Amino acid sequence: MVGMEMIEQAISRSDIRIVGVARREASLPPGARMEMLLAEPANWDDAIAASGAKVLVSALGTTRAKAQGDEAAFRAVDYDLVLQCAKAAKASGIDHMILISSAGAGIASGNLYLRTKGEIEDALAKLHFRRLDILRPGLIRGHRDERRPLEKLAMVGSPLADLFLIGGKRKYRSIPVATLAQAVFALAREKPGGRFIHEHDAMLYAIRRIGA
User: Fold this and answer.
1) For strand 194-198 and strand 55-58, is the pairing parallel, antiparallel, or unpaired?
2) Which of 73, 155, 60 is nearest to 112 (CA)?
3) In the chain, pLDDT over 70 holds for what percent of residues?
4) Which of 4, 106, 140, 145 is the most exposed place for a label (fewest CB within 10 A)?
5) Range with lowest mean pLDDT among 51-60, 153-162, 195-204
6) Residue 143, number of CB atoms within 10 A of its CB
7) Which domains does the chain have, with CATH numbers?
8) How far is CA 166 from CA 101, 106, 125, 171, in A?
9) For residue range 106-123, what is the model confidence (pLDDT) as tens digits?
């Protein structure tokens, strides 16, 4: 969902060049100007090296339901594949990575999803990119091609629920996928080095400060 939103927003922008790395063809929106490099995940290293990109954006992720409850299958995507892509990017000279993680991510979490997100955040930090931006959105509101009934129900109620998330809980507020993509594009233009974690308000601030 995040990747497709980035593609759609890039249609009207001349300052952005997107290269997608995937294992199969994707249905692109009319007017999309981008390259798609198709390969099996085992060969994504070569595809990333051939992209000529300056920034790696990873919105990779699955769910335990899609992994049929198999923890190893879940981690193979949310941890192993993300780390593989990051190492390939670093080896090919890409020195800036942006990761879509999750609010509440942490290695001490009792939740498999949040713990895995925390573990991949730590693993990426050890690769020492010149700049690493970690975005931790709450529920991402937008259209998905796949059916997730509970998530759809949560999206309907999230604008009201957000009103009760104040103070330290603001980081769990939902965010439209369009806003998340704007934050990614804004942060892709940042030059200072370091490791930065962006929760809800920080993502909105990045858009205002750097420009959508």
Assistant:
1) unpaired
2) 73
3) 89
4) 145
5) 153-162
6) 10
7) 2-210 (3.40.50.720)
8) 21, 21, 29, 9
9) 999 999 999 999 999 999
